[in-house]
Records
---
Amino acid sequence: MPPYFSIELTFPYRSLTSSFVRDFYSTLFSKYPYKSGFWNSKSNTIEEIIKWNQQLLENKFVLGFDEHVKNNYKQILLMSDTFSELRHFWSYSRNEIRGTILIPEFDVLVDEDVWKFSGKCFDEIKDFCEWIWVKSSIETLQSCLEMDGGPINTDKIKAGIQPSTNPISIVDKKIFKNLKGIKESIVIETAEKNGVMMIDQRLLE
């Protein structure tokens, strides 16, 4: 598999309702329509995937170290005219729900050897991030490249650690006020629904 760029979403566990997965998918599919299941869910219908993932989140499921991957959350593929692959999956950790969007790095970077995002792809990524922030109950939105260490734990962000911003992140104003040591290359923009968006211009074409 190629290295992946990811958009990392966190939701407080209290936001879980009996229709949480169905409602989020409905929102997501209005932007990027459902294509199929992926990997451990290729043979499943979307209804089966919804019920499976909802049940795992309700059970706060975390895959065991030696547990078979077939027991894990089921992944989905989405349709996109821009990206060669667009994938989503769920996970649970530390009393929060995590949603991950994956895109191959070669789709978003100018050159695989240089961490610079192409202008066209970044515009679509930014548009999606602003849109999904408004449309759902996200607590933090971060973005990562495969070798950058991954997303920052929400508790650490609340304690003042800057979220992973490769090249974009969004948090609410209350969390933003506590952040310390924001890089000089970070541009701050206001987002709807009491959000603050951070963009690392150093990573843009």
---
Amino acid sequence: MNKNENTIREDELSQLFARFTPPMRDSETFMERLDSRLDAVEYLKDMQRAQVRRYKATVLTAFGAGVVVGVILLAFVLNAPPSEHLFCFGIQSAPFLFLEQNSRIITITALSLLLAGSIVSIVYTMVHTDLRQDVWKMQMSLEK
């Protein structure tokens, strides 16, 4: 495109915008809708702040519980007599002997994974339950 074509298109656009006259609505209705939407935005901001506080408290609680339970389980496993295996199959097969000899490590790993999975599941459930409730409340406030 050259300069002349750009100028013509700009003139056409400016004329198009100059001719455009949107229908005027009732200003009270507009202001009511604007106020309700601004209130909804403020409500969402407040809910988000509260949600972040709940998530932080939940994560700290889950972390604390995990540390306490982990320490207790570790103390239990380490206080068992080293000569005794934590579980015994009574079978002289190589895979079962390996499991018996490494029963402490296997037990600690399994309990740690179980604990971590439980904590993640609890936090996940709390987060998604709160999100569904917040979305529902937001929809209800916007419909008013």
---
Amino acid sequence: MAHYFLFSALKPERARQFHDYMVAIHQGTPMAEAAKVFGDMNRLQRELASYAISAKSFTRSAPDTPVSEPGISNLSPGASALVQARVELGTRLAVSPEGLIAPDEARRRDAWMARVRAAAAGAPGDSDVLSFAAEAECRSGHARQCLSDAEAVLVRSPSDVAALAWKGVALTDLAIAGPAGDRATGLAAARTTIERATALDGAAPLPSIALFQSYTKAGETVPDQAMLGMARVVRAVPAAPGPRLYLAEELLRQGKADMARRVAYTVLNGPYDSPEKTVAATLFPPAGGPPTAGR
């Protein structure tokens, strides 16, 4: 179907219908409703079936220019030891929408973190290993260890964007968990660190997410510049549910319910159940129910 609409010589009527359909989807219209623009669906099905068996169906599939050889990076011994841990990262650090972790999963997470820490301790000069360890520590709620690992990377590579971002995340979490009188100063230091990472690589998603969350974690309204940064992340990685949910939650808190629902549409209607989808379904009940704002 995608090949038919994107690569065939569509008749003007079909091209217009496809354009209108995509506009409606972008605006958050349910797919079944948006598809009504095609009119007789039986006729469209016949056209698709005919196109699928036509001799020209895949004549434009080959790339116009030669594809370059894939890039190959040699892993250090420490990074090699963490390949399996990297694969398991999302699973080991996942939590339920209620923030609860089953006892068995908690034990597996602890064992996984022990492996990561052992690898980091055995490779004190390996920036890749330490950067991964910083991510694991920050995402599992160990801000001080995250900060230590990130700073160890920055000693060797002061312009390491990921290490700067994780340092900013750690400083944010420490500021929020620390004395109330020190919070403003701590958050300012965190944002300065994150903004340095953004200045080094404005296209990197991690610093934009870190800056955005430095406000949401603190219960502060996200300023426009940080909102734009998160919007760029959503545009750059449209299939990632996390950034979409973060942005939709903040839009909802700012009273922009319609825009928030459009941003969260692909999370709410995704093909698989994810923790983000469960949260989104709570924030945006079925049609007729009011969105639920919360921090």
